[in-house]
Each structure stands twice: as structure tokens, then as C-alpha cells.
Amino acid sequence: MKVIAALILGICAIISASFISDGLTDLRTGDTLSEAQEKANSSRNAIMAFLKLQARDQAPGVSEQQHPVKTVRVVSTIQYYLR
User: Fold this and answer.
1) Closest Cα partner for 46 from 10, 13, 4?
2) Which pLDDT does position 70 carry in this prediction?
3) Cβ distance 53 to 11 under 8 Å?
4) Which residues 6+ apart lie within 8 Å of 20 measured at CB?
5) What is the C-alpha to C-alpha distance for residues 40 and 31, in angstroms, rounded to an integer?
6) Max alpha carbon distance in the chain (Å)?
7) Residue (of 38, 39, 52, 46) closest to 17 by Cα position
8) How far is CA 83 from CA 12, 27, 38, 41, 73, in A?
């Protein structure tokens, strides 16, 4: 179970990093991703406030723990500095 939790946290970190990269494209109209990334500095604070694993589909007669396919919901807040 610890391996699964570590794997999920690693995936969450990768997803959060991609959200930052996507968000940086919106800094100014016309900025490309590389220009926006040059303006970004290190992250100031990162908080993963919510992690939930649940069955992807509601199957009658199958409990959530027995369902082989899961949905992962992660809510995180990342603050970063701009140059």
C-alpha cells in the first residue's frame, strides 16, 4: 500500500508540474511557453490538500475496494514566484 501511495504522490507531482507549465502560457497574451517559463522562478509553496481514490464506475454487487479500475482525484495548491 505504501508503494501505491508513493506512486500516486509522484504522479500528482508530475500532473501539478504540467498544470504550472500550462498556466504559465496565460501570463500575457502572445507569450510562448518558453518565454513564460523564463519569467517563472522557483515554487514558493505547494500543498496537496485532498487525495481520493474511488471506483471509476458504479457497478452493482461490486464493492469499491474490489473494483479494478480507480479514479484518482487530487486537489493541490501551488504558489510560485514570477521574475
Assistant:
1) 13
2) 74
3) no
4) 40, 43, 78, 80
5) 13
6) 55
7) 46
8) 26, 12, 8, 6, 32
Residue position matching grid coordinates 511557453: 33
Question: Whole-angstrom distance between the N-terminal and C-terminal Cα of the chain?
Answer: 41
The type of residue at 20 is I
For the CA atoms of 30, 31, 32, 34, the dihedral, rounded to the nearest 10 degrees, stands at 170
Per-residue pLDDT of 23-33, as tens digits, reads 444 445 555 55
Query: What is the per-residue pLDDT across 14-60, written as a single tens digit (0 to 9) for each?
Result: 665 555 554 444 445 555 555 555 655 555 666 666 767 777 777 77
Q: How far is CA 55 from the centre of its chain?
A: 19
